Amino acid sequence: MKTLVLDAGHGLTTPGKQTMNGSKGVIKEWKMNANVCNFIEDDLREYGVKIYRTDDRTGKTDIPLKERVNQCNKYNPDLFISIHHNAGGGTGTEVYYHTNGTAEDKKVANLLAPKLATKTGMRNRGVKTEKWAVLTCKATAILVEGGFMDTKSDYDIITSEKGQRAYAKAVVGMVIEYLNLKKVNSSTPATNPTIKVGDQVKVKTSATHYATGQSIKSFVKGSTYEVSKINRNKLLLSDITSWVWDYDVEKQESTPSNQEFMVRIICDELNIRQSASFDSKIVGLVKKGEAFTVVAEQNGLYKLKSSAGWISANSKYSQKI
């Protein structure tokens, strides 16, 4: 299986990296970069390529360039693509490879440049070289600039879903051509074949909507959900209306109804809820240091034997003993 690493440049808090105040207001560059990366991921799922990201999918942290390079090298990909948008009063798209880059870097850049301009309808500013730090990874690598954030004609394209999808389609077409990818059979299972419909899965950190990359607030680290549908690498979970990537969760072996265990409260106070839902009524409190017997686990909550209530199963608040 081929491996691709995508890098949505910058983060939501990176100073200065944002659009002009246009018809859609001011939009952070990372947001557009991330949208394009998400569309690329979605389109390439049918081709069986393994995809990793080096940026923070929530955008809250601008991952340092050195760390992005180290992450890329760890994945040892066949191709690395850093997705960006430009500024400086120009117009059109550009593709960069490192000044000291390889013939393969140049080849990839030249494959993408005309596709990107054609798909987006913007001017082709061509292939250029720079000593961008993110391009010092060991993989064949390019950095893409998808239009100018401070030019109205480009702004109207790059801030639209149509424009971002066009950007992504150009990259996808290049990746398919360069890596010689073929569509996998529609019956090919998801990347994680251990997860099946009906399984209970636990949220690893915070799950993200597969198309937007935005964190889904209803998810809590350690929460468990039942898998109701599977579509390749995407999972639809019970009580959740958004599809998520299978790598955001891990299979959780359900606790047999007759198996009990103890937990100790490690936060100052923790709510007791009436039912197995974080939206249910608060009926009491437990306090730090107290220990309880758990008789069931559901939707990221533990049912306490000593009461009819439920507490969060998040390991930040309670630990098994």
Compact summary:
With 321 residues, the protein is an alpha+beta fold.
Using only C-alpha atoms, the radius of gyration works out to 23 Å
The neighbouring-strand order within the major sheet is 2-1-3-6-4-5
Alpha-carbon distance between the two ends:
42 Å
Report the sheet-strand fraction: 25-35%
Order of helices and strands: EHEHEEHEEHHEEEEEEEEEEEE
Query: Which sheet architecture does the biggest sheet show?
Result: 6 strands, mixed
Percent of residues in helical segments? 10-25%
Which ranges are low-confidence, i.e. pLDDT below 50, for 5 or more consecutive residues? 186-191
Q: What does this protein look like?
A:
The chain is an alpha+beta fold. It is built from 5 helices and 18 strands. The strands form 4 sheets. A 6-stranded mixed β-sheet has the order 2-1-3-6-4-5, sandwiched between helices. β16 and β17 form a beta hairpin. α3 (103-120) packs antiparallel against α5. It is elongated and about 70 Å long.
